[in-house]
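> example.struct
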């Protein structure tokens, strides 16, 4: 039996941005009913190639053939008409609209010139139920978590009845049971003959859902493999051009006196009384399912959200609460889950974003020493291997992983005593993950206390000295390294 002819063939695709050759004769072939994984480090060109396919960017050179005809979509709307639908890594929803309104945006059902809200709600509820999402279709997106917003994006794509579906890191903010529900949807689409291009950095997902995998590096396509005939080592070597040990090396640090103390922190309907301490050089992992209150806890500690009671102190200084500036001044840093909305000023340059929290270090009589500021930004960019055309490149034009590194560089420059990391490796490739783990190790060696929120169980078990487990805003228990295992953590996380 011969293999089916490719439903999609992209050949010789080139794309250049100011100062950056994003794609260099990239190619991709996808068969009907195939789940085709697209793999590569951040900045390898994966998302750019898919944005060319789906009409967001125009190619400088190359050809695209889809379902037997040559195409060159000039806009996402034109691509959707052809049946090409993409779920982007960075969420693309309107916060002030409801889930149903976002799902139907631009395609609202009408009768007599009036929008049929009841029809939108009914169909949206069915789509959300299909992916086991309990979001109310009438809930505004601004009130949803990042994971819930991601599920709304997936529901919107399903509504379009795609002939080919592109998913760019769709599970980055999803819990394990939500990921399995999504995989069921993907398998169902594949059985119906709809190919899915799946971009992911999570190796276990590649082997759980993929049929074939194409690896990109530096804008080039470097190889395609059948998933069942390859292994993690080969894929990593193709991605980075070198072998990387995926094992997380835990640095054994002598833990010092408590630097962060939280006592009886409460917020009605969100957080029950929570108390914790983190010592100098200690990593406290925080585990829990979506909606458990992990992010809310970090935001409350940092002062980004108000609280109803409790105290927070850093290095003996009691924080006033609901005052991020005072938290930063006391030596508390916060790498947020949503880098795009909360972590970066996207229209500012890479260098400017890196130094935002410590401008006083470069000020002299009310004026910035721009040369000194640029020198530090350059050192940080080199240290974190940030891929940018220059320090003057706008942050909005970086890949997701490099955006995350810029935010991390900012807090490294601030010299924090306590760091709150909320999903620090979300959407980060395996090479960059190893670098971030090294940086976290350097921080604790310097005596920094770290709170690490992560949905990646190997990350928590590999890095944390203790793991605190949350369920519905309550701290269910704290496990030391000898007690912590996946089964025990999940038991506590489920309440």
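> example.seq
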């Amino acid at each position: 039996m011969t293999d089916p002819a490719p439903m999609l063939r992209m050949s010789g695709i080139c794309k250049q941005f100011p100062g950056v050759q994003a794609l260099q004769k990239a190619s991709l072939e996808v068969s009907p009913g195939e789940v085709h994984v697209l793999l590569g480090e951040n900045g390898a060109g994966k998302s750019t190639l898919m944005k060319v396919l789906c009409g967001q960017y125009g190619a400088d050179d190359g050809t695209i053939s889809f379902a037997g005809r040559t195409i060159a979509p000039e806009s996402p709307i034109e691509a959707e008409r052809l049946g090409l639908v993409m779920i982007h890594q960075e969420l693309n929803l309107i916060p002030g609209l409801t889930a149903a309104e976002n799902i139907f945006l631009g395609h609202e059902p009408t009768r007599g010139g009036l929008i049929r809200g009841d029809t939108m709600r009914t169909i949206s509820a069915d789509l959300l139920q299909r992916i086991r999402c309990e979001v109310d279709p009438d809930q505004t997106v601004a009130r949803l978590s990042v994971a819930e917003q991601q599920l709304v994006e997936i529901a919107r794509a399903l509504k379009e009845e795609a002939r080919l579906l592109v998913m760019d890191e769709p599970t980055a903010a999803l819990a394990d049971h939500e990921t399995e529900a999504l995989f069921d949807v993907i398998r169902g689409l594949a059985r119906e003959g709809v190919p899915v291009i799946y971009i992911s950095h999570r190796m276990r997902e590649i082997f759980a859902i993929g049929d074939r995998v194409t690896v990109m590096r530096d804008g080039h396509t470097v190889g395609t493999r059948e998933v069942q005939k390859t292994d993690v080592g080969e894929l990593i070597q193709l991605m980075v051009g070198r072998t990387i040990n995926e094992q997380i090396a835990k640095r054994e640090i002598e833990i010092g006196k408590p630097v962060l103390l939280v006592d009886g922190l409460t917020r009605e309907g969100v957080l029950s009384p929570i108390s914790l301490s983190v010592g100098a050089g200690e990593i406290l992992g925080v585990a829990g399912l979506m909606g458990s209150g992990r992010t809310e806890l970090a935001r409350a500690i940092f002062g980004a959200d108000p609280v109803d009671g409790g105290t927070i102190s850093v290095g003996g200084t009691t924080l006033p609460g609901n005052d991020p500036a005072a938290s930063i001044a006391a030596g508390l840093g916060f790498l947020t889950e949503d880098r795009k909305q909360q972590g970066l000023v996207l229209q500012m340059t890479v260098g400017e974003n890196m130094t935002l929290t410590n401008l006083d270090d470069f000020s002299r009589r009310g004026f910035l020493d721009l040369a000194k500021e640029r020198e530090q930004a350059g050192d940080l960019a080199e240290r974190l291997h940030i891929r940018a055309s220059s320090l003057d490149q706008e942050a909005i034009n970086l890949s997701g992983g490099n955006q995350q590194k810029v935010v991390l560089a900012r807090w490294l420059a601030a010299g924090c005593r306590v760091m709150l990391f909320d999903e620090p490796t979300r959407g980060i490739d395996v090479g960059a993950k190893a670098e971030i783990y090294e940086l976290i190790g350097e921080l604790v060696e310097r005596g920094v206390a770290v709170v690490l929120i992560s949905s990646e169980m190997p990350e928590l078990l590999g890095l944390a000295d203790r793991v605190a487990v949350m369920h519905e805003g309550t701290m269910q228990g704290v496990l030391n390294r000898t007690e912590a295992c996946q089964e025990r953590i999940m038991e506590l996380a489920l309440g």
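> remarks
The domain at 258-493 is CATH 3.40.50.300 (Rossmann fold).
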